[in-house]
Amino acid sequence: MWQRSKPYLLIAPATGAMLLLFVGGLWEGVLQSLGYRPLVGQSRLTLQFYETLLSSADFWRSLGLTLRVSILSTLAGGVLGLMISVCLVMLAGAGPFKHSRFWRHVFQLPLLIPHFVAAYLAVVMMIQTGWIPRLMFALGFLDQPADFPVLVQDRFGWGIVLTYAWKEAPFIAWMLYPVLYRTQEKWWEVARVFGSGRWAYFREILLPLLLPAWMTASFIVFAFTFSAFEVPYLLGVTYPQMLPVWSFEMYTGGDLTKRPAALAVNVLLAGMAVFFGWLAHRTGRRFGLLEGGRWE
Amino acid sequence: MSRRLFHRFHRVAVFLFILFIVVPFIPLLLWSVSAGWRWPHVLPESFSLRAWTYLFSPSSGLWESMGVSLQVAIVVTLINLLIAVPAANALARYRFWGKRGVEALMYAPLVVPPYVAIMGLHLTFIRWNVTETVAGVVLAHLVPTLPYMLRPLVISYRTLGFQWEDQARMLGASAWARFRHVVLPHLLPGIAAGVGLSLLVSLSEYLLTLLIGGGLIRTFPLLLFPFLNGGDPAIGAALSLVFAGMTAGLLITTEWLLRRCYGDSHRTQPF
């Protein structure tokens, strides 16, 4: 009896905490998004907030912006991350960057600072009077600040995408690094014996090994950028806003009648995050990407 | 492509990526020591330590907010450690009904944003009288941090079979002695990684602290945010640098402790 109940006792505290704080919170969020407010005598459930939301143009514009920004961020971060992971492997070897521990820490820098500081770096670098326009002016590429494109607090979301790319590329690289680290010099030599070029070696050997970790890392980045608040809050425009910012503004705006709508946005956001997670898992399984590469 | 050309290309690529990572910190440093810096100057026209002296003066609130931040982060991490070690043991080494479900629940905050749950709990927190208190903020921070604590611990537990503990039991070791002398040393890298990540996530948390703390629990990010959102750029830059230094110090200390315990050959992964 003890043996059978032991794992349940071990997981009980952590599960309890998560059930209470996470599942309980989601449950209350769903109830409130359905208009359940017993404090003001409102205990009938209604779908009206979802109906209003789904029929408003604002919601669809916000969703469009949110999807565009998170997809572009994931693609940019994914490609740069792949390149950086290759750089990291080279730093582990010999060559001009022998003090590799120091340089590897340099690549960790974006992982160490929180997202809102990264957003601030983007402001300092890329506003029209930022450091990049100043350098370009000094080099004669620019006559006045207005000639530099609006990249921060722009309607398209370029500032957000660039910040995420800078912040998430090293994250993806660190997820890929252990995989690349296990590949060996010998493999490249064997491949060469069989007449493989560098590109063929990368395509046939490295890429299939990297894909599972790359898919997982990219999905984590996508799920995060889809629902994160701070960077779009600092770098976005007042209209259209990304969904998390929109929900936050409705919730904290002072108008209590808007709170159910804010929670409805949250519930839809969470639902979509779960759907994308399920989709990524399914796609991964279909192509055999989640089992991990075959090493033998 | 000839071998030499290829190697030169490698070097250029590594160099460019290092630039890409490091360059944004340069104007941040310059801003923090600038006294006046108008367009189109590439370097500040005059330098001063005004922002730094302000930060380290009592009126800036830096020390209080750092204290609150550390208090929250440390309590959160201790609670996480207490509940995650047994959970990781069960998830890594036992087979039981409902395991997949528990795993999904534990890692769910990595996919479903924690503020969705915490915004839903807001009214309940008000009923429990924990809004605008450190305790409430600690409870809120548990949601995003627990998965980061759990994951490295599960990985550590997976490589520990039952044989070592059985052996210790046969030699007469008590349950506590078995944990203290057999399990704990094996778990140390996982604990270090989990503690580091949990502290990092808690220290960087803004939205949950604002929602539950109501602006009264002023952690470091809450102090910093107004400066990022159009405040004095010199102070914003200096505060950002303090924050980056604090988290970097945290990571380097963790890594140093690990190296001291395990020798240079031991590598830690962020996940």
TrEMBL record, chain A:
The keyword Transmembrane applies. Belongs to the binding-protein-dependent transport system permease family. GO terms for biological process: transmembrane transport. The lineage of its organism: Bacteria, Bacillati, Bacillota, Bacilli, Bacillales. This is Putative spermidine/putrescine transport system permease protein. InterPro entries: MetI-like, MetI-like_sf, Sugar_ABC_transporter. It comes from the Bacteria. The chain crosses the membrane at residues 7-27, 69-94, 106-127, 156-177, 205-229, 261-280. Keywords: Membrane, Transmembrane, Transmembrane helix, Transport. Residues 63-280 form the ABC transmembrane type-1 domain. It comes from Melghirimyces profundicolus. It is a multi-pass membrane protein. One of its GO terms (cellular component) is plasma membrane. The keyword Transmembrane helix applies. It is found in: Cell membrane; Membrane.
Automatic annotation (TrEMBL), chain B:
It holds the Pfam family BPD_transp_1. GO terms for cellular component: plasma membrane. PROSITE patterns: ABC_TM1 (PS50928). The keyword Membrane applies. It is found in: Cell inner membrane; Cell membrane. It comes from the Bacteria. It is a multi-pass membrane protein. The chain crosses the membrane at residues 12-33, 68-92, 104-128, 134-150, 206-228, 234-258. Keywords: Cell inner membrane, Cell membrane, Membrane, Transmembrane, Transmembrane helix, Transport. GO terms for biological process: transmembrane transport. Its main location: membrane. Residues 66-252 form the ABC transmembrane type-1 domain. Belongs to the binding-protein-dependent transport system permease family. This is Putative spermidine/putrescine transport system permease protein. It comes from Melghirimyces profundicolus.
